[in-house]
Amino acid sequence: MGNLAITYQYIADILSFKSSNDMLEETLSDKEFDWDNIVIEGSKHLILPAIYCRLKTKQLTHLLPEELDIYLKEITALNAQRNHEIISQVNSLSELLNTHEIEHVFLKGSALISGGYYDDNAERMLGDIDILVANNQLDLAFDILKKNSYYPIEQTLGNDFFEHKHLPRLKTDKYICAVELHRKLFVSHTDKALSCSNILSSSQLINTIAIPSSKHLLLHNILNYQINDNGSLYNSVSFRSAYDSLVILQRKDCSTINSNSKLIRNYFNLLGIFFKDIPEKYSGTNFVTKFYNFKLKHLKFYKFWNKLIKLIDFLWIIISRIPHFIKNKAYRTALLKDRRRIFSHMRSVLKNT
Predict the structure, then answer these.
(1) What is the pLDDT of residue 159?
(2) Into how many domains does the chain fold?
(3) Does one domain contain both 171 and 253?
């Protein structure tokens, strides 16, 4: 795979709501078309079900090699069943929180599938269920879930000494997903539009499930990738996040957003390389897009650059925690006690860079 930009463009054309079906059909009909690269990158970006569903919507699944068609159909069916179980879990959580008058909204993937944003719920692959809860009810919500089959997962020592955007993850043996109760959406980044109070006060109720407004869903999707998933740090694109944005942008109540933020502009600029769905006022060419294109066309440099950024980010975390180690005796004691796990993690990071 010498030029990742080509594979990314093919994936974008499959996912896009505005790409030419005729041109896409012509491209996919080529006997030399490399489906392996689509599967490899689609798997990395957690979008294989979305790729299959979009090909089905565009009536192009007949162009898939027979074995690949069976494989993608099976993965999509499994994801559809998983999401059906997740929706049942969301309904159960919603009923439980509403019974105790806990002000909340579901976030990210669980909000999107509960809100009917996808033509087919099988399109979206989900991990945890994220719920934003009013700050003054957060501990109460945590206790309520613990009394209803959920139990906290063992945390690393950092959970005791550094602020997190959510409480410890909760698991249950009754349902498929772990749950994270959020006090806020970001650890250090501040965005007034995405404050807890703003999101809760403008939430929408769809089939008794409370989710953020379309505008807040879009802003959170963008900034969650750029900040929490380090998309801005690595100057990269996530096609799962990209497809979520395209789906949300289809809504009339989400036709305009404030793009003054550099993080938002860069996000749309990178998507604009591949998608015609991005409004011209949000997309543009700059150093960020040129550098990203360069990386995609020079994969050895791309891999080297990502490893370098990962190493720098890891070293910065260590440096930033040195003052805590010096000043905080409890942190120093806990760190020394957990040294085997920490050294193992450090070796793993250094080995992979």
Answers:
(1) 65
(2) 2
(3) yes
Expressed as residue numbers, the domain containing 325 is: 300-352
Q: Are 287 and 30 in contact (CB under 8 A)?
A: no
Strands 179-182 and 150-152: unpaired
User: 29 and 170: one domain?
Assistant: yes
Place of tokens 């965005």: 191
CA distance 15 to 28: 14
Cβ burial, residue 143 (10 Å; 0-12/13-18/19+) = exposed
Q: Which of 152, 153, 156 is nearest to 344 (CA)?
A: 156
Q: How are beta strands 209-211 and 204-206 bridged, if at all? A: antiparallel
The total of other beta-carbon atoms located within 10 Å of residue 45's CB is: 21
Q: How confident is the model at residue 3 (pLDDT cuts 50, 70, 90)?
A: confident
Query: C-alpha 281: how far from its chain's center?
Result: 24
- Judge whether 17 and 276 are in contact, CB under 8 Å: no
> Could you tell me which residue, 15 or 310, shows the higher pLDDT?
15
Residues 181 and 328 placed together within one structural domain of the fold: no
Burial string for 310-320 (b: 16+ CB within 10 Å, else e) reads: beeeeeeeeee
What is the domain-level CATH number for residue 73? Answer: 3.30.460.40
- The CA distance from 107 to 217, in Å, is 8
CA distance linking residue 247 with residue 282, whole number of Å: 16
Helix axes 35-44, 48-57, angle to 10 degrees: 120
DSSP 252: G
E strand or H helix at 226, and its extent? Answer: none
The mean pLDDT value of the chain amounts to 90
- If asked whether residues 276 and 340 sit together in one domain, one would say no
Chain segment 281-319, per-residue pLDDT in tens: 777 788 889 999 999 999 999 999 999 998 898 888 888
C-alpha to C-alpha distance for 188 and 195, rounded to whole angstroms? 12
Q: Is residue 191 within 8 Å of residue 201, measured between CB atoms?
A: no
Q: Give the three-class secondary structure for 73.
A: helix
| Model confidence, pTM | 0.90
